[in-house]
Amino acid sequence: MPENCNACERSETASEALSERGARLTDLRRDVLQTLHHSPKPVGAYELFDQLKEAGKASAPPAVYRVLDFLVEQGLAHKLQSLSAYTACKSTPHAHEAFFRICRECGQVTETAVPASLKDVAAQDEFIAEHLVVEALGLCRECQESTL
Q1: I want to staple 103 with a disulfide (CB 3.0 to 4.6 A). Which of 10, 46, 71, 140 is the partner?
Q2: Is the domain of 116 the same as that of 71?
Q3: Is residue 82 located within the same domain as residue 102?
Q4: Domains in the chain: how many in total?
Q5: Does the residue 1 lie in any domain?
Q6: What is the mean predicted confidence (pLDDT) over 47-64?
Q7: Of 31 and 91, more confident
Q8: For the chain, what is the largest distance between any 2 Cα atoms, rounded to a whole number of angstroms?
């Protein structure tokens, strides 16, 4: 692991969380997780497969899809439906209650907690939300300033 690499440290922390839960971290799972943590933007499954294949770390797209599903289920990654892409969870592993701001210009994604008021709306009429993800598409501050 490179010294002072935040992405590597986040991958290691996530790996430890998996181990504590008794989940097995295979080489491919570790490789996918590290690739997601090192990616500055969300990555599509086939793009991820191509990166791993080029590095000699993956042999078939279905295996990568299974790993991505596993990482999402474990709270270590998120699938951004609007982009059909994946991103590593930027906070500690959690139930997937996340709010994403996606810049349509530069592709940067910011992850924050879902506001309590939105959780309250989801819980109306005795509805139990099992999966709550909100995606907002727009322009980040830097892209707004560059378009002026």
Answers
A1: 140
A2: no
A3: no
A4: 2
A5: no
A6: 90
A7: 31
A8: 51
**Beta-bridge partner residues of 100:** 111, 135
pLDDT at 44 over 90: yes
Judge if pTM exceeds 0.70: yes
Q: What is the DSSP string of 82-145?
A: TTTEEEE-SSSS--SEEEEEEETTT--EEEEEPPHHHHHHHTGGG---S-EEEEEEE--HHHHH
Per-residue tokens: 80? 């951004």
End-to-end CA, the chain: 41
Q: Do 13 and 65 belong to one domain?
A: yes
Dig out the tokens for 62 from the structure: 């279905």
pLDDT band at 53 (very low <50, low <70, confident <90, very high): very high
Domain holding 14, by residue range, is 6-88
Angle subtended at Cα 7 by Cα 101 and Cα 130, rounded to the nearest 5 degrees = 50
The answer to whether residues 33 and 80 belong to one domain is yes
